[in-house]
Specification:
By secondary structure, the protein is low in regular secondary structure. It has a domain of about 30 residues. It is about 10% helix and about 5% strand. It has one helix and two strands; from the N terminus they run βαβ. A two-stranded antiparallel sheet has the order 1-2. The longest helix has 6 residues. The chain starts with about 30 loop residues before the first strand and ends in a 14-residue tail after the last strand. About 5% of the residues are buried. The structure holds zinc ion. The site of zinc ion (ZN) has 8 residues, from helix 1.
Length: about 60
């Protein structure tokens, strides 16, 4: 079988869709990350600013 048909390159002028960066966290109402320890142990969602410690359990969140 000849697969040359699939070797055709798309025209360079064709706009290539660029995947958006994962900046969904910036659009969230609460800036920060969820404390995994509280989520696992208590089932609570505690928001922690990256670089700080969780106010509930003191786990550092990066
Ligand atoms: Zn915590």
């Amino acid at each position: 079988m000849s697969s040359s048909f699939y070797n055709i390159m798309p025209p360079s002028s064709m706009p290539i869709p660029q995947p958006k960066q994962a900046d969904s966290d910036k659009t969230m109402p609460v800036p920060g990350r969820r404390c995994a320890a509280c989520l696992l142990e208590k089932g609570d969602t505690v928001w922690v600013i990256p670089g700080n410690r969780c106010p509930q359990c003191g786990t550092s969140v990066n």
